[in-house]
């Protein structure tokens, strides 16, 4: 896996979005996970494309009802985005919002409320 795989990443990403639009979530999950592995190897763990692909996996897990797995990934994405992009970056705020939604789904209302308030204040 190397730079020659860049076109493959973007084609897979487009196909994953087509699967999402068609409601083919299991197929999307497979592609999202593959894209994440490739991005991590090609770009490294802290690259924005890698973080975006990790967030896509988390979002797909959430849509499939795999909320605990989504929570784990969303926490990791948020931590890495805070470190690499800063607390006020729109992608960081988006990750905070996504994690707040996961907390709501898990019944962690105090965590969701706190994160929601943080997002509102930072925006």
Automatic annotation (TrEMBL):
Signal peptide interval: none
One Pfam family here: TPR_10
PANTHER family, per database record: AAA+ ATPASE DOMAIN-CONTAINING PROTEIN-RELATED (PTHR46082:SF6), ATP/GTP-BINDING PROTEIN-RELATED (PTHR46082)
Could you identify this protein by its name?
Kinesin light chain
Provenance organism: Rhodocollybia butyracea
Which lineage is the organism of this entry classified under, starting from the top rank?
Eukaryota, Fungi, Dikarya, Basidiomycota, Agaricomycotina
